[in-house]
Specification:
With 472 residues, the protein is an alpha/beta fold. It contains 14 helices and 22 strands.
Length: 472
């Protein structure tokens, strides 16, 4: 049956007309050859398309630019440095700990990405990342939450953002592993939306005759997905005020850091961030700075090389504050970000996208054949009335699993875990730096969250795994 001949609801007829006006009539090229179920499937996607957004996407794809004004003035952001907070921490930490004890906190992990660079087909959170016990990233985070539950006599709800592509597999993984010792009611999954990609002629892409290709809408999609799935309403009703946001690939994340929360509360910030010092001017990391007098992130690709290399009179980089995608975000702020509709800007990335050929085969071209659209969580920073930014030591809190080899890879994340274990063993006075060099240890997040928890360690808590140590 031809698309123009089937009887339809007037609303669908109007949509098809608008799609034609937008130059998207080709998505019905195969319609007449589809089964009834396939036709219904395609029409269901058409009904779900946001046509105003599609119009905007087409304009952006044609002009090749984002819908975000170009910054005029870039200045470094005020950051609480490690040296500064080390002097004040004993007073501030109590505020964060109280909020944890009072149940004002939820954890949000974004795990909807596709992990393309890692080349691991399953959801990234299921990747076995600890060196000796081979715990998955999800298990590591679950154990960190259990540690906090025990320490603060609370039950921190954990919200995990998945995408339509990996939701079922992620949920199955948790069920198969009995939620890693958490109560199943403590773990909430919510699915982010997808957004259609466009080809190099700004046209929707069919990857199957009845399917329009879309990708997860970026980690900024968290803001919308928390709202669309009723999570913010749930949090509000449960008296939760602060969301600890982090990405599924950071194996070293210091979950719900009470010091960071203490500052966030004291300064009445709405969205706060952690940063590390950039390794060098060319490190590919977004920088937290003041963009036209508002806190925000400039992506490494958008930072003028002259500014990236600029140094002060002590030869330190001016724009040194690398964002590690760890935030406290207020529930009320997230609600306000949605009340007038989702408004984070869209970023374009030229990518290789599967596409249906005239002969019926779906191919993955060798060269980028279109653009994907994504929103980024850090674009919410300038909307906050107040922000707080805090420097932390990279070796203590940040080791992302991005690539198969090289930097931010499986090997580097394993090495970073060993390095951190050595550091804590030395800080706790259990080994000298020289002794520690020879040790490869894995530390259980269930019982140890920092060097202080290792002080006076009972040797019975160390078990040998070959030559190496597992400490719990
Ligand atoms: P990245 O942008 O590094 O993407 O996501 P990725 O999926 O891990 O890997 P590549 O780029 O395909 O190789 C940073 C974090 O944001 C989440 C990811 O799961 C990761 O925790 N994310 C990203 C989402 O939750 N949804 C998205 O649409 C994109």
């Amino acid at each position: 049956m031809d698309i123009n001949k089937i009887s339809r609801q007037p609303a669908m007829t109007a949509r098809i007309k608008r799609l034609n006006e937008l130059g998207q009539g080709h998505i019905f090229d195969y319609f007449a050859r589809l089964t009834e179920a396939e036709q219904a499937h395609l029409l269901q996607q058409v009904a779900g398309l946001d046509l105003d957004l599609l119009h905007l996407q087409i304009t952006m794809a044609k002009s090749g630019s984002v819908d975000k004004p170009k910054p005029k003035l870039l200045l470094p952001a005020p950051v609480k440095t490690i040296t500064e907070w080390q002097k004040e921490q004993s007073e501030v930490i109590a505020d964060g700990e109280n909020a944890l004890r009072q149940g004002l906190v939820a954890v949000v992990t974004v795990a909807g990405g596709q992990g393309t660079r890692l080349g691991f087909v399953a959801p990234k959170g299921t990747f076995s990342i600890t060196p000796l016990r081979e715990k998955s990233l999800f298990q590591v985070f679950a154990e960190k939450i259990r540690f906090l539950n025990q320490k603060y006599q609370t039950s921190i709800p954990w919200f995990i953002m998945t995408s339509p592509i990996n939701d079922a597999e992620t949920q199955d993984f948790f069920a198969e592993n009995q939620y890693f010792g958490l109560a199943s009611g403590q773990v909430h999954f919510f699915i982010q939306s997808t957004i259609p990609a466009l080809d190099n002629q700004a046209r929707l892409i069919l990857d199957r005759p009845d399917h329009i290709f879309g990708n997860p809408n970026g980690h900024g999609g968290t803001v919308k997905a928390l709202w669309d799935n009723g999570c913010l309403k749930y949090m509000k009703a449960a008296g939760i005020r602060y969301v600890f946001y982090f990405q599924v690939d950071n194996a070293l994340v210091r979950l719900c850091d009470p010091l960071f929360l203490g500052y966030h509360i004291r300064l009445q910030a709405e969205m706060s961030s952690k940063v590390v010092r950039k390794r060098n001017a060319s490190e590919k990391v977004g920088i937290i700075c003041q963009i036209d007098h508002k806190t925000g992130v400039v992506e490494y690709s958008d930072l003028d090389p002259a500014l990236a290399e600029q140094t002060d009179d002590q030869n330190n980089l001016t724009f040194w504050a690398g964002s590690i995608a760890i935030h406290w975000i207020n529930v009320d702020f997230l609600i306000a970000e949605n009340e007038q509709g989702f408004k984070l800007p869209w970023h374009l990335a030229h990518k290789v996208i599967p596409v249906l050929q005239a002969d019926g085969r779906t191919v993955l071209p060798a060269e980028p054949n279109g653009v994907k659209f994504e929103s980024f969580i850090f674009d919410a920073l300038p909307d906050a009335r107040k922000n707080f930014t805090m420097e932390v030591a990279r070796e203590e809190e940040f080791s992302p699993l991005k690539n198969k080899d090289g930097s931010d890879s499986i090997d580097s994340v394993i090495e970073d875990q060993y390095r951190l274990a050595r550091r804590w063993l030395v800080q706790a006075g259990l080994l000298t730096a020289q002794e520690a060099e020879a040790i490869k240890a894995e530390i259980s997040p269930l019982t140890i969250a920092g060097a202080e928890d290792l002080k006076g360690l009972d040797p019975a808590r160390i078990s040998k795994v070959g030559e190496n140590w597992y400490i719990e």
